[in-house]
Structures are given as C-alpha cells and as structure tokens.
Amino acid sequence: MADRVRIIDACKNFGKVVALKNANLSVKPGEVVLVIGPSGSGKSTMLRCINRLEPLSSGQIWVDEDQVSDHASDIRKIREEVGMVFQSFNLFPHLSALQNISLAPRIVKKASGREATEIGKSLLARVGLSEKEDSYPEQLSGGQQQRVAIARALAMNPKVMLFDEPTSALDPEMIKEVLDVMVELARDGMTMLVVPTRWDSPAPPPTRSFSWTTARSSRGVLPRRCSPRPEKSAPSAF
Ligand SMILES: Nc1ncnc2c1ncn2[C@@H]1O[C@H](COP(=O)(O)OP(=O)(O)O)[C@@H](O)[C@H]1O
Ligand SMILES: [Mg+2]
Questions:
Q1: What is the dihedral of CA 33, 173, 150, 44, to 10 degrees?
Q2: Of 125, 78, 119, 128, the residue nearest 99 (C-alpha)
Q3: Which atom of ligand 1 is nearest to the CA of 37?
C-alpha cells in the first residue's frame, strides 16, 4: 500500500538551532502512529512542517502524491488534506462552536452558508456537542473546546490528522472525552500522527509507536530521556 505520509531526510533549522535533522517517517493509510520523544526533539516542528506552518530547510514531505514541502505546491490544498489539533485548542474566540467549524468549509471549500452549517452541525454531533453549537469558546470546558477543534479540523475532510499533545492542557476528567473522539476517528480509518505529552500519556491505541529520538542527529544534545518503550508496544487507551 502506498504511504499516506512520507517524510524523507527532513531537516529544519531555526537559525543555529537544529530542530529536525534527517528525519524519516512513513505512515500508511489508516495507521495511528504515536511519535514519542523528549521535549525539544522537534516533534511539534515535524507536525508543523507536514501542514507547512513551517517550511523545511531541506528534505521532502509527501502526503499521497503531493509534495507538501515543495514551495510551489498549493498551500490551500495542503491545509485541506492535513488537519491539525494543538494542545491549546486555538479556536476563534469571537465565533460560536458552529461558526468555528463551518468557517473553513465556507472560505476554503467555497461551500454555501447552508452547506457549511450542515457540515458543522453533523461534525458537532460526531464529537457529541450538538447542544453547544451557539456556545462561544469561553463558555466551553477545555475538553469541549478540544472536541470543537477536532471537529473544525475534520470539516476539511482531511486525509491525515495531526495531534500535538492534544490532552496536555486538559483536566484529568476531560481527557477521556477527547480520547473517545480520537479513538472513534481511528476506528473510522483516519490516518493519525499523535504526539502525546509523555510516553505514558493517555492516547488512542496506536498501530505503531515511533521513537522520535532515533530521527535526530548524534550531536550530543539529545536524547535527554529515551523512551523506554520499544517500537510497536502500545500504551493503553486510557
Ligand atoms: N519558531 C521557532 N523559532 C526558533 N526555534 C524554534 C521554533 N520552534 C521550535 N524551535 C526550537 O526547535 C527545537 C525543537 O522544538 P519543538 O519542535 O517544539 O520540539 P518538541 O515538540 O519535540 O518539544 C527546540 O530547540 C525549539 O526551541
Ligand atoms: Mg512540542
């Protein structure tokens, strides 16, 4: 089966800081890959390069047949193909839950107002928040905000979803409601790259764990702490 995501010798520097050095990773369609590595090892940078929030310094990243690292490739298409969920939710504070979700379909996909609203309502139902469509982010709990953020990313019908420490800002009692949504997504066959906060943080059952330290150079800065988890072992769902 062809790879859904392929990272080939990816390098990213911020001035003198080497965030990624010759990172390589391939993800098949439907895989749920946990990317585990120490703080500062470039996990967030890698996710941000996949949807080109950051350009690579060198190397390539492919999503199916599209080279997303190519400056000439259509940034709009990349944002449609790659959904991203951050630890800090990043919802628009002045928009309701429904408006947050339906904004991108309207602007990027050129859906009509009615179509975009329908997409938004069905996704709110999918994350169990139908009754919150008119609520603004400040009126929602952290767990609810993160579920809206997931729904917002799904509204573009992405080929892959990236999760950067999606439960790290949540109180313990809210973690399960977000994980339930992620587990459901995985069951539906979504390709997912998940960076958990710690190697033993709650995460959806992965098809594979990837020790990110192996992607880094031997410059001596890393690893600060190696994951004791061997490849392929899976943390429990909750
Ligand atoms: N926008 C940026 N500007 C400068 N340095 C950055 C930026 N983003 C990340 N870095 C640096 O790149 C390295 C990797 O960071 P990051 O990708 O956030 O690691 P992780 O997510 O694994 O903790 C760190 O040294 C960090 O300070
Ligand atoms: Mg990070």
A1: -50
A2: 119
A3: 22
